[in-house]
Amino acid sequence: MKVFVKVKNIVLDAVFPHQCICGKLDSILCEECLEKIPRNKTQLCPKCKKISENGKTCSSCRQKSSLTGVMIFGDHEGALKDAIWRYKYYLIRDLDRPLSKLLVSRFGDYIKSKNLLITSVPISKSRQRWRGFNQSELMATKLSDELGLVSSVLLRRNGKSKSQVGLTRKERIKNLSGGFGLQESIDKKFLLNKKILIVDDVYTTGSTLEECAKTLRQSGAREVWGIVLTRD
After folding, report:
1. Residue 228 to residues 25, 166, 169, Cα–Cα distance (Å)
2. Whole-structure pTM value
3. Strand 202-203 vs strand 223-231: parallel, antiparallel, or unpaired?
4. I need a labelling partner for 195 at 20 to 30 A (CA). Which of 5, 17, 107, 164 fits?
5. Domain that holds residue 161
């Protein structure tokens, strides 16, 4: 399978040579375009959408969510939307570095100050085989490298939940119910009182991050934050 993935990536590089969205060759996402991507000036409570520092779940909503908060870099539009699409569906895995840099530039100081353990939203085995990588896991690794923090693969998918694309909020919640568990190698004692950051690419209804956070909280985590590139 690894050989197949390598061959696939070589073919993709030949058919789709590295080219920035602005047309510049030999650059996946050039510094000029990276700097032009707008960032959200304010962050919101993930439940009631009131302005909240660093996207922290407000006191009124704290009992309604397993998430301590969700940090969102920008809106799902323009260059950022295009870059995420290339990353996930054109399988340009090297976009993990510039995209993770965006998260570091906006939230790096706060994440480092809280000394968060970094993990990612898992994808299904079939999606992992098709894509050859988990885009959120790659970003989590780059984020931890940039900030000098520990990263670990903590979660796994349970069963065969279908794709979330096109589902309503109610359908998404039902589809993901019980959909995540701890990796078999993870001891619950390791998570006791930990402060954890879950990396994902796009925030739609929040059901995926919520279900992941629920699993980690039930396993002893004290705080569980989410961080994403965009809100769709």
Report:
1. 27, 19, 18
2. 0.86
3. parallel
4. 164
5. 40-81+95-231
Higher pLDDT, 6 or 139: 139
Tell me the per-residue pLDDT of 30-64, one tens digit each, with 9 for 90 and over.
Answer: 888 898 999 999 999 999 999 999 999 999 999 99
Which one-letter DSSP state was computed for residue 143?
H
Strand pairing partners for 57?
none
Confirm whether 7 is domain-assigned: no
Residue 22 within a domain: no
Per the structure, the count of domains in the chain is 1
Domain of 220, CATH number, reads 3.40.50
Q: Has residue 5 been placed in a domain?
A: no
Q: What are phi and psi of 23, to 5 degrees?
A: 105, -10
Tell me the per-residue pLDDT of 111-142, one tens digit each, with 9 for 90 and over: 999 999 999 999 988 888 888 999 999 999 99
- Give the whole-angstrom CA distance, residue 202 versus residue 73: 10
Of 28, 201, 41, nearest in space to 98 by CA? 28
**Backbone phi, then psi, for 164, in 5-degree steps?**
-80, -15
Cα 101 to Cα 122: distance, rounded to the nearest angstrom: 21
Q: Which two tokens stand for residue 205?
A: 């209804």
Task: Please tell me the predicted confidence (pLDDT) of residue 165.
Answer: 56
Q: What are phi and psi of 70, to 5 degrees?
A: -135, 125
